[in-house]
Amino acid sequence: MAGRQYSSLLLVFSLLFIVAFSGVAEASTSGKLRPSECKPRCTYRCSATSHKKPCMFFCLKCCATCLCVPPGTYGNKQMCPCYNNWKTQQGSPKCP
């Protein structure tokens, strides 16, 4: 009896662990955002710049195409390859 209760308890904790950490893995994977999630992510991404309007414009455009916004207010573009590799005609990064 005690072994069966232990197995059930272990199963419950394992499932909780998987559910809790599946969101962490999903957040770091590129291309997983819904279009409705772009504005809050871009608002945070552009919060540290003094050029908010152009930053938001390009961030929203990039997010709509790539469905990914890198974490943080600067850098970390390697987390979103599409966002990182999209360039202007001059070869500079399109996405902030």
Automatic annotation (TrEMBL):
Top-level taxon: Eukaryota
Q: Which UniProt keywords apply?
A: Signal
The residues forming the signal peptide are: 1-27
* Stored Pfam families: GASA
InterPro entries associated with the record: GASA (IPR003854)
PANTHER family per record: EXTENSIN, PROLINE-RICH PROTEIN (PTHR23201), GIBBERELLIN-REGULATED PROTEIN 5 (PTHR23201:SF60)
Can you tell me which family this protein belongs to?
Answer: Belongs to the GASA family.
Q: What is this protein called?
A: Protein RSI-1
Q: Which organism is it from?
A: Morella rubra
